[in-house]
Amino acid sequence: MAPPSCLLRVGWLPAALCALALALALAPASDATSASLVGINYGRVGSNLPPPQAVLPLLEGLGIGRVRLYDADPAVLHAFAKTGVELFVGVPDQSLAGLADPGGADSWLRSNVMPFLPDTKIAALTVGNEVLTGNNSALTRALLPAMQSLHGALAKLGLDKQISVTTAHNLGVLGTSYPPSSGAFRRDLLPYICPILDYHARTGSPFLVNAYPYFAYSGDPKGIHLEYALLEAGYAGVPDPNSGLRYPNLLVAQVDAVYHAIAAANTAAARVVEVRISETGWPSSGDPGETAATPQNAARYNSNAMRLVAEGKGTPLKPTVAMRAYVFALFNENLKPGLASERNYGLFKPDGTPVYELSYKLPRDNSTFGGAGNSGWRFPGGGGGNVSGGYDNNGVNSGYYDISAASPDSAGPCRWSQAAVAGAMAVLVVAA
């Protein structure tokens, strides 16, 4: 007989799913992800990319044990089975409408997640990508209901503590971002962001942002020092005139601008919601006008970003909260639309050779590989012809940082219900 808790939570779901949930709860912790703080985005918008099993030795060589995917391709999920690599699995934008219904969420989990557990370590589902800045009102309205439905379906299986549900935002959700202490969300997005903050506070899930100092520098190369954008350790930094904090690099300034925006919207959420970087990177090549997109700058930025995160450092505002970040991206992707830089964010070429050499090597405890990840694959020089694994938002990585003064679109506080505040405080107590 199944334990009472399983019967109560699952009820109408098939007994097989309940049994699987119980097996997951009793599974040994030996395959748990290490103290890895650095991850990488595995995008697959290309016609010449290698098959998924070829990715494993590259990750092992980098020492990276966390990977963010943009869909739930079965071949990719199977390739990561029994490796210990922790996955953030993407839920494509086109699925959001169907997932807003609890029945649709349960069906999606049964088809795209449950068959791969417990062998494949899925830590989170990221619902859509940069939806709120994508100018699609239907998707915007469906975003939170889809997140809530997926979380509810996981809770019925007893998996909500193992698999979180979140979404990744473009920094364009900010109406004001400079100085960081003036960070505030766009007023027109508050009706959507406030309930999302409520959701994060109650579920303990992270607030994800795609943060790109490259875009800030390329948009204002005379106003922003290159060393500040490249996260160079020797740079003197930029003071925030309001808080008195000094920002050594632009990435931590971007993160703190988001923290301030959350605090401006609701102080209870600010006490419990963690901001994580779901994408950050620097292109190694671009169009003639993209002069900052060079292999040298990309190597410096990504080396510095990996070092900064791996050392467990926080931001000036949150010095005790270690940053977590996913570097964008594993491969150059030849089918991405837009400027040439969009196709040149990869650490590797499709044949598996490095685009440039990183000056920093991650410590051994950042990786989860103990031999299981070595597939024995050798790049033959050709690709797998993969054109799936795409991004939403028209395939564009439009990370954003407004270096200008306050925008008239900046917003005031959210109005939370007493129940929402109580839920946030409950999460705080549990986290403590």
TrEMBL record:
GO terms for molecular function: glucan endo-1,3-beta-D-glucosidase activity. This is glucan endo-1,3-beta-D-glucosidase. It is an enzyme of class 3 (hydrolase). InterPro entries: GH (IPR017853), Glyco_hydro_17 (IPR000490), Glyco_hydro_17_plant (IPR044965). Residues 1-32 form the signal peptide. Its EC number is 3.2.1.39. Keywords: Glycosidase, Hydrolase, Signal. It holds the Pfam family Glyco_hydro_17. Belongs to the glycosyl hydrolase 17 family. Gene3D superfamilies: Glycosidases (3.20.20.80). It catalyses: Hydrolysis of (1->3)-beta-D-glucosidic linkages in (1->3)-beta-D-glucans.
